[in-house]
Design brief:
The chain is mainly alpha-helical. Helix content is 33%, strand content 4%. A two-stranded antiparallel ribbon has the order 1-2.
Length: 102
């Protein structure tokens, strides 16, 4: 589907109350623009859509397919952070030698 046709579809659906089901989108499009976009909207899965961008993404995906798995989570820190407890103290003064610091 062309970018132009997708833009025309989104313009035809501009006033629909969201979230909207597939049926509500089809009915609204028919009322606004005749049956021109009904076959296209019929390809949508039966669910609710929170935005027109969701509708467009379902019909003409713009986001790339995820080919790689999520990256590994970092390992737990080993040992104390640099600066000891002052590392996470928001009121600590930088550059000052602290009592009991490393």
């Amino acid at each position: 589907m062309s970018t132009r046709k997708m833009a025309e579809l989104q313009a035809a659906l501009e006033g629909v109350s969201l979230p909207a089901s597939k049926r509500e989108l089809i009915d609204y499009a028919r009322a606004e623009d005749g049956a021109r976009f009904a076959p296209l909207l019929a390809r949508l899965p039966d669910r609710e859509f929170d935005s027109l961008d969701e509708v467009a993404e379902e019909l003409r995906p713009a986001q790339p397919e995820r080919t790689a798995p999520d990256p590994e989570r970092p390992h737990e820190e080993s040992g104390k952070p640099p600066g000891g407890a002052a590392y996470i103290d928001a009121s600590a003064e930088s550059g000052r030698v602290r009592e009991g610091g490393p």
